[in-house]
Design brief:
This protein is mainly α. The protein has two domains: 66 residues, no CATH class; 65 residues. It is built from five helices and two strands. The radius of gyration is 22 Å and the shape is elongated. InterPro entries: DNA_brk_join_enz, Integrase-like_cat_sf, Integrase_catalytic.
Length: 147
């Protein structure tokens, strides 16, 4: 949740005024030489992919506006969490899920990276199973009843 509307407006103006963030720019000849989406629009790097430092600065500003600590790699993890939930909702098999995840993340076919990002979902599943088991095994305290 955005802590302050003025801060949110400032951030929007910051991105717009600084022209740091442009999605696709076919008018810029340098942008046609690569397939990066986020490019610089100023100075000698105009049309070139944003540097890690620039992206980190933008993500930091988003985090500040939202009142949370945020960094680019967290976005990859969050995307994978959301992807996992949606894949389950759609009833995808684990194999299809992994194939789609590899494609979307740009990993090679024999990559094992999906297992790294799947650890969160495994932890959530284990916690859910543990909580259900505890609820059945341990009586509810304070009300004199057992589950």
């Amino acid at each position: 949740m955005i802590a302050d509307q003025n801060e949110s407006a400032y951030f929007s103006r910051y991105l717009h005024d600084s022209s740091m963030l442009v999605v696709g720019s076919p008018q810029n000849p340098a942008a046609r030489e690569h397939d990066f989406v986020f490019i610089s629009e100023k100075g000698t790097t105009s049309g070139q992919p944003l540097t890690y430092k620039s992206i980190h600065k933008i993500v930091d500003k988003f985090g500040e506006a939202l009142g949370i600590k945020l960094h680019p790699h967290k976005l990859r993890h969050k995307w994978n969490e959301v992807f996992e939930d949606k894949a389950r909702e759609h009833g995808l098999t684990p194999e299809k899920n992994e194939d789609l995840r590899k494609y979307a993340m740009g990993w090679v076919e024999d990559s094992k990276m999906a297992s790294v990002y799947n650890e969160y979902q495994l932890a959530v599943t284990v916690a859910d199973i543990s909580a259900k088991t505890q609820t059945k095994a341990v009586p509810r305290l304070g009300d004199g009843h057992e589950s």
